[in-house]
Design brief:
alpha/beta, 8-stranded mixed β-sheet, Rossmann fold, globular
């Protein structure tokens, strides 16, 4: 009889212990200094900004979900004063993208006409379709990859030989370049100096071009929400640096990201990356 009585007690103890497992949280938000922040604070800052850079890790599902949610919430306030744009679309594909947004090009033809990223369907199509449904501009800001490759292989001088018909997809030449910026210095150092400055310059061409097309499509009173890899806007450098060279007085909000084992506090490496840093668990599954 005693044995039969002890079994349910042991079961209750085990069940109680199981329920004390730590709650699973998908993300946390921190300020630049590492103080706890919230999505609502991101939204409030974005509503009053001229340009918002939402840096992402390309394969992180939480980043993509929050990009879509922020887009929806910003649209609820800004309406037609919201402009969208992305690194994931190259400038020479703008005409085809515009046709899709206008409904004159179907999805199959868009796929045939535009160099879509492998994770387009899951991660970027919802953003493009939101723009289409709500008649928002969606700007293809990035330089065509072949021109960045030209700079890597042959230097910036190789761009001078391009005809005007192709140079229209690049920022005005020559473009400024500061090798002492942390973003480009790290590229140079991580490559062990291989290729000299051509590798960081090829990255700078992307940044300068994205800044150029972004500003070409922004007007006073609008909020431009730009989606890009976090490295293109971290520390208010890269694209942000180029924007500030032309429009130093613009109000810019940078959202960056980090992945950590513990998301209860921001790690040292994450501080200063952006005005807000979204931290997700290192164990989070990826989209591709």
């Amino acid at each position: 009889m005693k044995t039969k009585f002890l079994i349910p007690i042991l079961g209750l103890f085990t069940l109680s212990f199981t329920f004390k497992t730590t709650e699973k949280i998908a993300y946390s938000v921190f300020s630049s200094q590492g103080k706890k922040a919230s999505y609502q604070q991101i939204l409030a800052a974005a509503q009053s900004a001229d340009i918002v850079f939402f840096g992402e890790h390309h394969n992180n599902p939480i980043h993509h979900w929050l990009q879509l949610e922020l887009t929806k919430d910003l649209f609820a306030v800004k309406k037609d004063k919201l402009v969208l744009g992305a690194e994931m679309f190259e400038a020479d594909n703008q005409r085809a993208l515009n046709s899709y947004l206008a409904g004159t090009l179907d999805e199959k033809k868009l796929k045939d006409s535009v160099r879509l990223w492998p994770n387009y369907k899951t991660d970027y199509k919802p953003l493009v379709d939101f723009a289409k449904t709500n008649k928002l501009a969606f700007i293809a800001t990035n330089v065509p990859r072949k021109y960045a490759n030209m700079v890597y292989m042959k230097g910036t001088e190789s761009l001078d030989s391009l005809p005007a018909s192709e140079r229209q997809w690049i920022c005005p030449l020559p473009f400024k370049y500061d090798p002492e910026l942390k973003c480009y210095k790290e590229i140079f150092e991580n490559a062990g100096g291989h290729g000299g400055q051509n590798l960081p310059k090829s990255q700078a061409l992307k940044d300068a071009t994205m800044a150029y097309f972004l500003l070409q499509n922004w007007k006073t009173g609008q909020t431009f929400l730009h989606y890009n890899g976090a490295y293109h806007s971290d520390n208010h450098q890269s694209i942000v640096w180029y924007v500030k060279q032309q429009k130093p007085d613009l109000k810019i909000v940078v959202i960056s990201v980090a992945e950590q084992d513990n998301i209860d506090q921001l790690g040292k490496e994450g501080k200063g990356l952006g005005d807000f840093i979204i931290v997700t668990p290192a164990t989070l599954t990826k989209t591709h």
